[in-house]
Amino acid sequence: GEGARTGFANLVTGGLFTCALFLTPLLTIVPMQAAAPALVAVGFLMMTQVKNIDWDRYEVAVPAFLTIAVMPFTYSITNGIGAGFLAYVTIKTVLGRAKEIHWLLWATAALFLLYFAIDPLEQLLGV
């Protein structure tokens, strides 16, 4: 298929996520050992898409690689996505193509920069 063509798919997705919020407490009864196979399967499915990355364009390849590599090393999906966003914005800016970056990506990158800077700044300032 061609995917969703209207905003209705977004409304359905948002509604289902809202419904899922009420089921979140049930996740506490599932032990980590039971969830691990599902996480491995999701990781496998995610890695099958790596072949679609344009590895010849380093402004795409480096952020993608950082996103993939940082996640397991930091045990954090957030850190991986943040590293990829910051790398993408930095590389595009260094190449003189900053105008190609959407303002939402700039805002997200700024928030990730703040996210990564908070701990070192607190340690430096002794807070």
TrEMBL record:
The chain crosses the membrane at residues 6-27, 62-89, 101-118. The keyword Transport applies. Its main location: membrane. Keywords: Membrane, Transmembrane, Transmembrane helix, Transport. It is found in: Endomembrane system. GO terms for cellular component: endomembrane system; plasma membrane. One of its GO terms (molecular function) is purine nucleobase transmembrane transporter activity. It is a multi-pass membrane protein. This is NCS2 family permease. It comes from Streptomyces apricus. The lineage of its organism: Bacteria, Bacillati, Actinomycetota, Actinomycetes, Kitasatosporales.
